[in-house]
Amino acid sequence: MSDRVSRTAEIAAADPNRVIVFDTTMRDGEQAPGFSMSANAKVKLAGVLRDLGVDVIEAGFAAASPGDEEAIRRVTGEVEGPIFCSLSRANEADIDASYRALQHAPRSHRRCHTFIGTSPIHRTAKLKMSTNEVMSNAVRSVEYARSMFDDVEFSAEDAFRTEPEFLADIMEAAADAGAQTLNVPDTVGYAAPEEVRERFAALADRIKRRHPDVIFSAHCHDDLGMAVANSLGAVMGGARQVEVAINGIGERAGNCSLEEIVMALKVREDRYGVTTGCDTRHLVRASKILCELTETVIARNKAVVGINAFAHEAGIHQHGMLADSRTYEIMRPQDVGFEGSWFVLGKHSGRHAVAKRAEVLGHVLTGEKLAAVLAGFKRRADEIGEINDAELLGVIAAVDGTPEPVYAAAG
User: Fold this and answer.
1) Residue 266's Cα: distance from chain center in Å?
2) Listed residue (325, 58, 45, 341) closest to 181, CA to CA
3) Which of 56, 233, 325, 371 could form a disulfide with 83 if both were Cys (CB 3.0 to 4.6 A apart)?
4) How far apart are CA 157 and CA 219, in angstroms?
């Protein structure tokens, strides 16, 4: 077993309140239908994640296919900075594949992530193993991985449907075998936030007595829409690594969204008392590039990076924003990579927003003229929905009695 210090250990030792961001977009995210990525795409995305300041990149599952092993090898050979990780089942062949794939990365920046199912349904239906056999395989795989890697993570798959006592036993055994990161995954999105907080706190209370430097990690799925909330619960329970994906992609309903939890920890640092190493100004860029690489789109109302995240149509909101953006925005759009907020003019907009946009377009509207333009604006908005600059100029022209060509020219 190596006595070298991994990059993970250095990060944890430098600040106990620093949450390690572990991105699994290229592994768990890619396993979702419609999100498969080529080696070139993975290299490009890894560069974006490096710029974002992600600590650990799980670049793939080397044993899944020769192509996946080669993609990991390319990523680690062409991108420098983060810790690179490959997933492995609890067997020597998988761990060997991870070692081959990660050989280009500096030794301190290589991680083997080994896992085994621990819940009753996984033990009986999938693995056909007893608790003793699962325990033996877990320990043996961690010991083998530690003979090759300075940084080993162990995951108890389906942890939240595993008996609490057995979960604690196998986690402690993995730590005894040399795993420095213990992942407690909510593999099927079954848990609830308070339950997650309590489970992490209990595990930390037991295991950190013997292994004070071990890092607990959260990997939460979104089957019930609680992946981010559960990950925050884990942080409150002592987790200092969160496993996430850009745009929340991943198996079934997806993973904890990278952009959402990073901004939650940043905006509510007063509550959570932790930080990350992410440069959040790259969040929108990361989201857009993933969409381009996978030819997918995200919902307009997607938190943090959706097109509506900093858009305002309602008149009351627009009035408040004109007075002070903090009335309706808890974070600055520039902090996540947008150029700024924007108003959408539509039937919900009020006189303040219409007058402000008209002024930008060169028309000062007051008194009766503003009232007339607003009335025409509302009628047109009921007909077509969103009012762009050309439509607004057309309304103003109609009120002024300007000939129709002015309206057409505005388009």
Assistant:
1) 13
2) 58
3) 56
4) 10
**Polymer length of the chain:** 411
- Cβ neighbors of 132 (< 8 A, separation 6 or more) are none
pLDDT tens-digit series, residues 353-381: 888 878 878 899 999 999 999 999 899 98
Buried b (16+ CB within 10 A) or exposed e, 55-74: bbbbbbbbbbeeebbebbbb
CA–CA gap between residue 257 and residue 21 (Å, rounded): 11
Dist CA 369 CA 94 (whole Å): 73
What is the tens place of the pLDDT at every residue in 296-350? 999 999 999 998 898 876 777 877 887 888 988 999 999 999 998 867 788 888 8
Beta bridge partner(s), residue 244:
23
> 35-39: long-range contacts (C-beta < 8 A, 24 or more apart)?
35/249, 35/294, 35/296, 36/294, 37/71, 37/293, 37/294, 38/71, 39/67, 39/70, 39/71, 39/74, 39/75
Residue 111 to residue 243: CA distance in whole angstroms: 14
Q: Say how far apart CA 398 and CA 372 lie, in whole Å.
A: 10
Q: Which two three-digit tokens encode residue 77?
A: 């050979």
- Give the DSSP H/E element, type plus range, for residue 170: helix 164-177
Q: Residue 105 region, left (φ>0) first, then alpha (ψ -120 to 50), else beta?
A: beta
Judge whether 209 and 179 are in contact, CB under 8 Å. Answer: no
Which pair of structure tokens corresponds to residue 54? 């992600």
